[in-house]
Amino acid sequence: MSKQTYKVCFCFRRRFRVAVSEAPEEIKRVFEQYSENGMMSIDALHRFLVEFQKEDKATREDAQKIVDSVKHFHRKGLNLEGFFKYLFADINPPLASLGVHHDMNAPLSHYFIHTGHNSYLTGNQLSSDCSDVPIINALKRGVRVIELDIWPNSTKDNVDVLHGRTLTTPVELIKCLRSIKEYAFVASEYPVVITLEDHLTPDLQAKVAEMVTQTFGDILFSPGSECLKEFPSPESLKGRIIISTKPPKEYLEAKEVKENENDPEKVKASDEEAWGKEVPDLLKDDYKNDLGEEDEEDLDDDGDKSQHALAPEYKRLIAIHAGKPKGGLEECLRVDPDKVRRLSMSEQQLEKAAITHGKEIVRFTQRNILRVYPRGTRVDSSNYNPLIGWMHGAQMVAFNMQGYGRSLWLMHGMLKANGGCGYLKKPDFLLNPNKVFDPNVKLPVKKILKVSNYVYGRRVVL
């Protein structure tokens, strides 16, 4: 128990007891080292920050802010309880913010990228509203990849964003593009990638090209209609907008959502997929058909067969080409030394492929980009375990940002690193072309770290 004294009406003093956690002996010794007569002054706190906390750039003003932030009855310094309270306060994070400190001059394929899935949805995947608000919120959080599903509007003369073949209400594409431009670089100056799921006719593709070029102007990165031989670096693309899409099909009329509703297997999600409980085992034995997946357009060796129907203005916008080549998994994961591309897999497709082609996936992601997205049965906008994607080098582990749950918390925590810029350099073992990492090999533990953690004054060794 701690005793505190305060004045009442400037006339008399009153003493009362405050129930606080008792500071451990280690904390008491540090406090005694930097205090005098039970009080750590502003100057002493400044010395503590520089000498003990190793915050070389800390100033006396920083020390004053700490004193002001700790709610107690002293303004000229900290007593033991105030000092102990400061150590556990948000103003004293466990890791000092280092800002952007990774090497940002490597190709985009060398980074994990903060990626959203169906970024325009406000709630579930079947009946929620489509809006630019969740896009704005994602960009403010540092998300660097925004996904837009683009469809003809009801009169077939303009373009809407919505989740096709569902009851979601649309939002105009131009509204989403304008919001992206306004908020793209609020949280990070590094590039924003817009992935388009295209369901348009060539005339509407030309209209999209006009919208995009007029909205983004000089900040749009447009290398031309040819595939890139190597991806540029995040550093070279600061402040730029990048368009990524598969070479699109001719527009197909949307089917009624009743086709899905009449088949319970298409919309049923197990209890393990419930929000807050959705982190599964890395690998499963059962693989049901993934319904409602984002099918990739088949590509031949010379490019997309439907390119002749593609509006040339639209084609020139595509900086990161996406597509699934003809053939089996081996062909999909084939590395072309002359061009780079983006490949998309559902969480289930990745799980299956990882069993037999783990090293090939890692080799593919050393030069190319792999995007992983939630399976179609996650109608409640829940998420999957991102670790399987990360351990295979997948750069775009696409998440529903509308909800909550352990998977999403893990994603947010992971992408807070490197100053929260939305790009994390992948570890070297995922980038070594001479010795490709095999995720299926069990390796010995290299180091065991013991950590002393103080919880409400009690020491816990982890």
TrEMBL record:
**Cell location:** Cell membrane
Q: Name one GO molecular function term.
A: phosphatidylinositol-4,5-bisphosphate phospholipase C activity
Q: Which domain of life is it from?
A: Eukaryota
Q: Which UniProt keywords apply?
A: Hydrolase, Lipid degradation, Lipid metabolism
Q: Name one GO cellular component term.
A: plasma membrane
Task: Tell me, in one coarse class, where this protein mainly resides.
Answer: membrane
Gene3D superfamilies listed in its UniProt record? EF-hand, Phosphatidylinositol (PI) phosphodiesterase
Q: What is this protein called?
A: Phosphoinositide phospholipase C
* Cross-referenced PANTHER family: PHOSPHOINOSITIDE PHOSPHOLIPASE C 2 (PTHR10336:SF154), PHOSPHOINOSITIDE-SPECIFIC PHOSPHOLIPASE C FAMILY PROTEIN (PTHR10336)
**Annotated stretches, region: Disordered:** 256-306
Keyword Cell inner membrane present in the record's keywords: the answer is: no
List, as start-end ranges, the regions of compositional bias called Acidic residues. Answer: 292-303
Q: What species is this protein from?
A: Gossypium raimondii (Peruvian cotton)
In what ranges is there compositional bias, type Basic and acidic residues?
256-291
